[in-house]
Amino acid sequence: MNASSAAAATGAQDPAATAEAFVSARLAARATPDYPGVLPTTMDEGYAVQEIAIGLYPDKIIGWKVGGVAPARQSALGTHRLAGPIFARNKWSIEGDVVVKAIEGGFTAIEAEFLVRIGPNVDPAKTEWTIEEATAAVDGVFIGLEIAGSPLSAINDLGPPIVASDFGNNAGIFVGPALTDWQTQLPAIQVESIIDGVSVGTGGSPSLEGGALESVRFLLGHCAKRGRPLTAGMLVSSGAVTGVHRIHAGSDFTCDFKGVGIIKGTVVKAEA
Question: What CATH number does residue 217 fall under?
Fold first, then answer.
């Protein structure tokens, strides 16, 4: 019996074994049929696994994804957002159609998002932010695509602490063109996601609770409290404005940021 199985059998928390199982599965592009350990029940337990996994993953953090917590869970979990790291190897510029790699038997979804770049001179010790202060910390906004991805197929069904434990269910971002006047454009842009010719969701920044900049405000404080403050140039994947749309190898998709740009792509099986 391995460490994760032993922990699950005894009911003991073993965040190190869980983190190692997730990281090794991600690097091998191998699905994890069941959660590799005892399910975390609080956000602190989920982030404890994430923090160990960050240390095991052979890359540097260049940004963070932010996801929403369902209103019915916010009071019990003490938060309306969750976060996960984005690594350098999983950031791509959009040059023509994109290719998304999906772990067979795992979880993969596309999320049309606004990607926010952090400007200079962010106070690394500041843990409480207003929306006005967070807005002032932004020096650019881009249209883009987050790839939600995990070796665990049921990750989203199991809840936010589980999502947090595996890098926030993030597998990378595609960065598109910058908005020319983001403060004016951001609230107004309408977005539509289409998979295999079928419209699967519409929305915009206002579709997110508090908007995309609320994700930035949350993340600035969240990361500072963890001792991982945001620094100049980091990207914030601010939330799925049309929803989280599961996708599989062989499919194609379009994310249309009306009047600004169109992201098109296909999905293939991930390899180690």
Answer: 3.90.850.10
The per-residue pLDDT for range 147-196, each reduced to its tens digit, is: 999 999 999 999 999 999 999 999 999 999 999 999 999 999 999 999 99
- Which residues span the domain enclosing 216? 60-269
Measure the CA–CA gap between 249 and 212, rounded to whole angstroms: 29
Q: What is the mean pLDDT of the chain?
A: 95
CA of residue 29 relative to chain centroid, distance: 18
Measure the CA angle with vertex 100, ends 98 and 105; round to 5°: 165
pTM, full prediction: 0.94
Residue 3 binned pLDDT confidence (cut-offs 50, 70, 90): very low
Sign of the Cα pseudo-torsion (183, 184, 187, 192, in order): negative
Is residue 42 one of the residues assigned to a domain? no
Cα gap 189→259, rounded to integer Å:
8
- Asked whether residue 236 is domain-assigned, the answer is yes
Q: How many CA atoms lie within 13 A of 86 on its CB side?
A: 26
Structure tokens at 173: 């971002």
Are the C-beta atoms of 17 and 36 separated by less than 8 Å? yes
The residue behind tokens 């069941």 is 34
Give, for 246, the enclosing helix (H) or strand (E).
strand 245-246
Q: What is the pLDDT of residue 224?
A: 98
In the chain, the number of structural domains is 1
CA–CA separation, 103 and 240 (whole Å): 21
Asked whether residue 8 is domain-assigned, the answer is no
According to DSSP, the residues that pair with 8 across neighbouring strands are none
Residue 14 within a domain: no
Which residue, chain included where needed, has tokens 């695509």?
A: 145
DSSP label at residue 110: E
